[in-house]
Write a structure and sequence with these properties.
seven-stranded mixed beta sheet, TIM Barrel, Nucleotidyltransferase, domain 5, five-stranded mixed beta sheet, 490 residues
C-alpha cells in the first residue's frame, strides 16, 4: 500500500504558513466542540490547555520493551533530575502499578488521568499493559485511562484496547514519508523479524495512519506527537498535520528534539541539534491553520507524577509506599469533591476568549512570559521559576504557545548574587518576550530584564494568567502609543 502524501499547501491554496496559529481558527474550533467532547477533555491536563493548570496526571512504567528504534531515544539512561520521555527510575509489575496509583490518588486529589507511556511502548508490552488497565478499571474506575504508543501494533490490538474504555490515545508520528522515516527509525520489529531502512519506515507509517483512523472511527480522542528534528522533518510537519487532521486527530503536539550527547542516543552522539524556540513556533504556526495544537507539553518522563509543571514521582517509589494502608474509597470521595470544586470555579472561563480593547492594530501581537506554580495564576517568584509559560497576545485573544525551561537561580534567600550565571541564563531564555509576569522579583533582576528590553511586572500577582496577560498587553500598547505621540510632539 503506497502512502497518500498530500500537497504542502493550505486549504486556500497558499503556503503552509498561511494560518495564524492557534490564536484564531483553532480557538473557534475549540469553542464549537460538542458537549460530550468538552466533557472528555475538561479534566485531562494534556488535552485541555485550561485543565493543565488544575489537574494532575500519572504515568505507570509497566512497558519496558519497544518494537522500534528511534534515533533520538536511549531508554537505558536514567537520572532523577532528567525529565524526558523514555526515562524511568523503576519498572513496575501490574500489581505494583495499582498500589502506586492508589497511593498517588490518595495524596494528590487533583489526579484525573492515568496513562502508560513506556519506558518502551505500551502495545509492544500488550499483556502487561492490558493487565494493568484491567486492574485499574476494576479498582480505580474514576480515573481516565490513556496510553501512548508508536502505533506499530495499534491495528491488530484496537479491539482489545477499546474494551477498556480508553478514550484518549497518543501516537507518535514523526513523518508520512518513508524517505524521511528511514532517517529517524533504524529498524522496527515486525512479525517476528527485524526490518530496516525505508521498508521499515514504510510499514510503521502505514500502521500508524491506519491505527489513527481506526481509533477515531471508534470515538477515541487521538493526540499525535511529532518530534521536530531540524534538517530532517521540520520542512514536512505541515503536510503531516494535514494528513492526521484528515484522519480525525484531535490534537497535534510538536515537541522539540531532545538529544544531548550524555543521553547516548544516536542523534545525541552525532551532534544533531535541537530546534530553536523560533523554529518551533514557526513550525507550530505552519501546522496550526485550523487544527488545535498542544502547546503546553512538558515531554514527561514515563513515570511522571503530579501537575504538568512538576514531577513528584520520587515521593512514591515502591519502598516508600510498601507499608501504606490506603483507604481508596475515602480518597475517591475526597478527590471527587476537590475536582468538582475546580470545575465549578472554571465554568465561567471555560472556552472563554480574552479581549483587549486597544487603539493599536489588531495585527500586532506580543510574546509574554509568565512565572506560575499552577492553578492558572501568576503566582511564582521570578527567581524561583524553573520554567516560564509563553503566551502570545493580540487585540482579540490570549493564547498559550509554549514554555521554556530554566534553572532557578534563587532558592529562598533574599540574596541570590552567587547565582548570577543562572540569572543571566534565565534572561537569555526569555529572548523574544516583551514582558514577564511574576508574583515577586528583586531589584537586580528587574534592572537586568529592562536592560535586555524585557518589561518585568509583579503588578498582576495572584491574578488569572489570561486576564494578566491581556492587561500587560494593553499596558504595552498604551506605552507604545504614548511614546509615539511624544515623538511626534518633539
Amino acid at each position: 500500500m503506497e502512502l497518500n502524501i498530500i500537497a504542502s499547501s493550505c486549504d486556500d491554496g497558499s503556503a503552509p504558513s498561511c494560518g495564524a496559529g492557534d490564536t484564531g481558527a483553532a480557538a473557534s474550533v475549540r469553542a464549537a466542540l460538542p458537549a460530550h467532547i468538552q466533557k472528555k477533555i475538561e479534566t485531562h491536563p494534556c488535552y485541555s490547555d485550561q485543565a493543565h493548570h488544575h489537574f494532575a496526571r500519572m504515568h505507570v512504567a509497566v512497558a519496558p520493551a519497544c518494537n522500534i528504534q528511534c534515533n533520538y531515544c536511549n531508554r537505558k539512561y536514567d537520572c532523577s533530575n532528567e525529565s524526558r520521555p523514555g526515562v524511568v527510575s523503576e519498572v513496575l509489575q501490574p500489581e505494583q502499578a495499582l498500589k502506586k496509583v492508589k497511593a498517588v490518588a490518595a495524596e494528590i486529589p487533583q489526579l484525573s488521568v492515568l496513562g502508560i507511556a513506556g519506558p518502551g511502548d505500551a502495545l509492544a508490552n500488550a499483556k502487561r499493559s492490558f493487565e494493568t488497565f484491567k486492574l485499574l478499571s476494576q479498582e480505580t474506575p474514576d480515573l481516565k485511562l490513556c496510553l501512548s504508543t508508536n502505533g506499530l501494533m495499534l491495528p491488530p490490538l484496537i479491539d482489545e484496547l477499546c474494551a477498556f474504555n480508553i478514550d484518549h490515545v497518543t501516537i507518535t508520528i514523526n513523518c508520512i514519508d518513508a524517505d524521511i522515516g528511514q532517517k529517524i527509525y533504524p529498524w522496527i520489529y515486525w512479525k517476528n523479524r527485524r526490518i530496516r531502512g525505508r521498508k521499515a519506515a514504510k510499514i510503521l507509517i502505514e500502521q500508524q495512519l491506519l491505527g489513527l483512523s481506526l481509533l477515531t472511527e471508534r470515538g477515541v480522542l487521538v493526540k499525535v506527537n511529532t518530534v521536530l528534528i531540524p534538517g530532517i522533518n521540520d520542512h514536512h510537519v505541515a503536510e503531516l498535520s494535514k494528513e492526521i487532521k484528515k484522519r480525525g486527530a484531535f490534537l497535534h503536539n510538536l515537541m522539540p528534539l531532545i538529544a544531548e550527547k550524555e543521553h547516548g542516543s544516536y542523534f545525541g552522539l552525532m551532534g544533531q541539534r535541537a530546534p530553536s524556540a523560533e523554529e518551533l513556533e514557526q513550525a507550530q504556526q505552519a501546522c496550526g491553520v485550523d487544527m488545535k495544537l498542544m502547546r503546553h507539553c512538558r515531554q514527561c518522563r514515563a513515570d511522571a507524577v503530579g501537575m504538568l509543571n512538576e514531577d513528584r514521582g520520587a515521593e512514591f517509589s515502591l519502598d516508600k509506599i510498601a507499608e501504606q494502608d490506603i483507604d481508596y474509597k475515602q480518597a475517591q470521595v475526597r478527590r471527587a469533591a476537590v475536582q468538582k470544586d475546580i470545575l465549578n470555579k472554571l465554568k465561567p472561563e471555560y472556552c472563554e476568549s480574552v479581549h483587549s480593547n486597544t487603539e493599536i492594530s489588531s495585527n500586532s501581537s506580543r510574546l509574554i512570559a509568565v512565572a506560575s506554580k499552577g492553578q492558572g495564576l501568576v503566582n511564582q517568584h521570578f527567581g524561583h521559576a524553573t520554567e516560564f509559560l509563553l503566551y502570545r497576545a493580540d487585540a482579540d485573544s490570549v493564547q498559550l504557545v509554549g514554555s521554556r525551561r530554566v534553572s532557578a537561580y534563587c532558592h529562598g534567600s533574599e540574596n541570590c548574587d552567587e547565582q548570577q550565571d543562572l540569572l543571566e541564563q534565565s534572561i537569555a531564555c526569555l529572548e523574544g518576550c516583551e514582558a514577564v509576569l511574576c508574583a515577586k522579583i528583586g531589584w537586580g533582576p528587574w534592572q537586568k530584564l529592562e536592560a535586555a528590553g524585557i518589561r518585568p511586572s509583579s503588578d498582576h500577582a495572584m491574578e488569572r494568567i489570561d486576564a494578566a496577560v491581556a492587561a500587560i498587553y494593553k499596558e504595552l500598547n498604551q506605552q507604545q502609543q504614548t511614546c509615539a505621540e511624544l515623538s511626534q510632539l518633539a
